[in-house]
Amino acid sequence: LAKLSAETHAKQTTLAPVVRYLEANIHDRALTNASLASQLSYSEVYFRKLFASVYGCTPHRYIMSLRIRRAKQLLADGILSVTAIAEQCGFSSVYHFCHSFKQRTGKTPTQYATENKTYQI
Fold first, then answer.
1. Please, is 48 exposed, middle or buried when counting C-beta atoms within 10 Å of its C-beta (0-12, 13-18, 19+)?
2. 75 close to 98: Cβ distance less than 8 angstroms
3. What is the pLDDT of residues 22-37, one digit of tens each?
4. How far apart are alpha carbons 90 and 31 in whole angstroms?
5. For position 57, what pLDDT does the model report?
6. Smallest Cα–Cα separation from 60: which of 44, 75, 72?
7. Distance (Å, whole) CA 72 – CA 38
8. For FRET with 79, which of 21, 47, 50, 89 sits at 20 to 30 Å CA-CA?
9. Each residue of 37-94: pLDDT tens digit?
10. Closest CA to 51 of 25, 17, 82, 86
């Protein structure tokens, strides 16, 4: 059990720079498995397997969850438009953002913003 825990910790440590990079660059539409794998000098296939073994999901799914989490924060702030939020969160289009947001939250961005707005004038 201790050996397994040490191996998991080593894998997390290996992936930590990539995860920090993702969090800092979530707006970048060019985030791909290949570009992330190259940061570690790993093959794309090995990177995807390693990432999934540590985080329990694919890198793409992890990226989408970060983008949706950031979008929720921005929507609740109530300052930016849905279009600006889609851009800041790295979505390729407003349509893609709205579709992905609703698929993952069950609400449109506008519904979410209305129900969770924290910014008041």
1. middle
2. no
3. 999 999 998 999 999 9
4. 9
5. 95
6. 44
7. 30
8. 21
9. 999 999 999 999 999 999 999 999 999 999 999 999 999 998 999 999 999 999 999 9
10. 17
Q: How far apart are CA 94 and CA 55, in angstroms?
A: 28
Amino acid, res. 100: S
User: SS3 for 118?
Assistant: coil
Give the pair of three-digit tokens for residue 7.
């191996």
- Token code pair at residue 119: 């910014």
Instruction: Give residue 10's pLDDT.
Output: 79
Cβ–Cβ under 8 Å, residues 37 and 23: no
Is 118 within 8 Å of 77 (Cβ atoms)?
A: yes
Please state, in angstroms and rounded to a whole number, the distance separating the CA atoms of residues 86 and 75.
Answer: 10
Q: How far apart are CA 39 and CA 98, in angstroms?
A: 30
